[in-house]
């Protein structure tokens, strides 16, 4: 089977990031908590939103992982490049497609939510934040530490689940469950980013100070990803250079869906 072209890869990253933002942030905007016309309180709550993010990345990994490697996140792309899993010339095209996909996801949420008469997007688009914009009122430094550490852990899980020594066909499950757990830990802290494209996708629709704080949700995840990309091959003794291949040929040929960063 031929290796996907760069056009195929950036299309996969765009659609995958779109789905991640629509499914994850959309669950928070549409269904986390609402009251019906009969004054019945419904919603999926804190756990439901965390699970929604995990399910979106799990399904996107299995759908697009064999095309692009299944990043859907600029931090993942940076960590993968540092760890030798993707060529450096692909980083900028991946980042651009991820941001565009995230913005399209945010726009779709905004358009759908605007169909509700009482909807006000300001402060209600699942944006990330610190201080007054943190769900739990956490400080800037608390948010930075959480985002750096959790992004590094996320990258370690991704790199470990997708290397040659890992069982085939299970990477998407490990990655999705890891992202769910990360959200359970950090929704109260920062509303959980670990993904600059996810943060960018809704920040400008949310307004209310979110665009001004967006720098944190680029800087901290990228630092965490860089730490993971440097340490993974040093600590675990494995540096797998894929050169021009975003995914391994055996992953493309296998009957089981798999991703590889």
TrEMBL record:
It is a multi-pass membrane protein. It comes from the Bacteria. One of its GO terms (cellular component) is plasma membrane. Its main location: membrane. It is found in: Cell membrane. One of its GO terms (molecular function) is water channel activity. The chain crosses the membrane at residues 41-64, 94-115, 138-158, 170-189, 215-235. Keywords: Cell membrane, Membrane, Transmembrane, Transmembrane helix, Transport. Belongs to the MIP/aquaporin (TC 1.A.8) family. This is Aquaporin Z. It comes from Mycolicibacterium hippocampi. The lineage of its organism: Bacteria, Bacillati, Actinomycetota, Actinomycetes, Mycobacteriales.
């Amino acid at each position: 089977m031929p290796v996907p072209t760069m056009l195929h890869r950036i299309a996969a990253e765009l659609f995958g990031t779109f789905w991640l933002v629509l499914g994850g942030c959309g669950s928070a905007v549409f269904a986390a908590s609402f009251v019906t016309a009969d004054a019945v309180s419904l919603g999926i709550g804190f756990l439901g939103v965390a699970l929604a993010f995990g399910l979106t990345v799990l399904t996107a990994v299995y759908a697009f992982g064999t095309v692009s490697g299944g990043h859907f996140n600029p931090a993942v792309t940076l960590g993968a490049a540092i760890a030798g899993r993707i060529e450096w010339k692909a980083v900028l095209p991946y980042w651009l497609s991820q941001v565009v996909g995230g913005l399209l996801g945010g726009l779709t949420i905004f358009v759908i939510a605007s169909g509700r008469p009482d909807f006000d997007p300001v402060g209600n688009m699942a944006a990330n934040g610190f201080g007054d914009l943190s769900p739990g009122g956490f400080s800037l430094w608390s948010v930075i530490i959480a985002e750096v550490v959790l992004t590094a852990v996320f990258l370690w899980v991704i790199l470990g689940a997708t290397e040659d020594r890992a069982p085939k066909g299970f990477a998407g499950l490990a990655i999705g469950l890891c992202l769910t757990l990360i959200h359970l830990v950090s929704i109260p802290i920062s509303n959980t980013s670990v993904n600059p494209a996810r943060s960018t996708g809704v920040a400008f629709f949310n307004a209310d100070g979110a665009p001004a704080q967006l720098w944190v949700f680029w800087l901290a995840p990228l630092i965490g990803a860089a730490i993971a990309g440097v340490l993974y091959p040093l600590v675990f003794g494995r540096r797998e250079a894929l050169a021009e291949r975003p995914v391994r040929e055996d992953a493309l040929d296998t009957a089981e869906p798999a991703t590889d960063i």
